[in-house]
Amino acid sequence: MTASTIVVKIGGARAVNPTEVLDDVAELVEAGTEVVVTHGGSTTVDDTLEQLGQSPEYVETPKGVVGRFTDEKTMEVFEMVLPGLLNTELVTDLQSAGVDAVGLSGVDGGLLTGPRTSAVRVLDDGKKKIRRGDHSGRLESVDADLLSSLLSDGYTPVVCPPMAGHEQDGQITAVNTDADGVAAAIAGALDATVVFLTDVPGICTDPDDATSVVETVETPTDWEMLSDAAEGFMSRKVMAIENALSDGAPEAIVADGGATKPVTGALTGDGTHVH
Amino acid sequence: MTASTIVVKIGGARAVNPTEVLDDVAELVEAGTEVVVTHGGSTTVDDTLEQLGQSPEYVETPKGVVGRFTDEKTMEVFEMVLPGLLNTELVTDLQSAGVDAVGLSGVDGGLLTGPRTSAVRVLDDGKKKIRRGDHSGRLESVDADLLSSLLSDGYTPVVCPPMAGHEQDGQITAVNTDADGVAAAIAGALDATVVFLTDVPGICTDPDDATSVVETVETPTDWEMLSDAAEGFMSRKVMAIENALSDGAPEAIVADGGATKPVTGALTGDGTHVH
Amino acid sequence: MVDCIECGADVSLYDDIEAGEILDCGTCGVELEVLNVDPTELDTAPELQQDWGE
Amino acid sequence: MVDCIECGADVSLYDDIEAGEILDCGTCGVELEVLNVDPTELDTAPELQQDWGE
Ligand SMILES: [Zn+2]
Ligand SMILES: [Zn+2]
To answer: What is one Pfam family matched by this protein (chains C, D) (predicted)?
Structure first.
């Protein structure tokens, strides 16, 4: 346990044991570690859209990558679920664990900013098309002042998307951005170690074999192996890790959020450690 | 314009002209006034409950007072709508107007705390009953440190319910509390003038006559008139005003949120001024 | 019929009495909360301060 | 049929062409976005960087 500031990315509702994670965060904070907690919540957005009688829309790019198309109504539900329901519950649970948590979305204080990207290229029924009206953004800047100020006052920030998307006319729109990217960008801005808690024990060379965890990634050869190993959703996580490290984070760790004391475990050797 | 710190309570969606209010707040902040914006959102909670196929539940006390019963599911929708949808949109709109707004619920940093009250006495079909499971709280304490720190760093806090409700076992639960009471308590804690923006020009002696606005309330006789004039929802506002003044607020103003520059107007004489 | 837990006097019950209902003892005037029905269990009804939310 | 706005060559249209579709000019290879149909209006299709959210 050497890190003085860490960013902990909590995975989806099914990926982690919240009580175990939050108690672990509480002990770290109590011991003097500055912690920023980040989270997403895509699954709950989809569930809530369904409860409201709507369908989440996923589009495919001409290159075959699939992602969410966030129209205006979806963005409203996104705001309801992430900074609303999930962030409030996480902050409340941390308070119960003795942590003076403060919830923030990327819009608050201009914490997470970048241009809004409203047009996307999609492949629809074999045809290439341009879809406009997407509420997404390219995360370019983290205002570390607000976080540093809260941390030095003894608060534990709990940060989630959306981010503040700058329109061409200067207006600000709340837009969707990837939660792994948020954790990575904050870690980069604070020169902090970032711990991604997931539902797997780390990045595995064989996704079906939990014992094939890559323990350390340091050399170019390690990195090549990492890129090969990272499949599916992990490829975006590896991209986030690259960004965190190139922005100044000393280390990125991917570890099992369902373990006992998962954050402490990750900081003391569990999971995949990338330098 | 003499107040250096003011609390502005924005009424429901139909009560105010948001652009006019937010531009006015932006000018005040630009001119060096410290502003805390507060809001509720009960109507949108009801609308969202209906969209989710549920009915808002209102209960009547044996004394005939009607209020919302906030069960667990309603509390979730409450978190979605207030700190989620409405707060994020207000913060985003303020950012667009050039204000570095930071959204907070009363749970964040233990900003608004007090005991949770889960049991209420209700009159149901003529019978007196005790209903348990209400998610409400008695707002007893405002932690002004977080607000003062944000204000002195140039941020404009945007605060809404819920508050942090302390359970008897020491756990914290997010619970419902009246937004007028939130504005009043914050004004009291910051010794700030509080401006309640509503859909009426002030407190009227004749609710059907907009020209019957009570301009100033200072003497005991004025207060008696005020209590008589305050009907329906205004009676809770008058209670909030009494609390704000007894906690240290120099002045409370009830004014028309639909006016041009409504906050500046209120600070320079419009509406009902209570001392 | 059930006994008042304060004064022991008979307190009459509705047929469709529910848990949570408050009965007034006609003899001593105490308010009794029905904790359970079948069998009926009573306790002194708590005084409650009302705190409304939004 | 419609003229490529870059090279003027004929570009063939589907019957059910929709606004937003991207056509490739077989002659000069440029990508053309259909801005409007009936009458057909084309512009060069913008290059877009993809930014995914959650
Ligand atoms: Zn009795
Ligand atoms: Zn061509």
So the answer is: Zn_ribbon_LysW
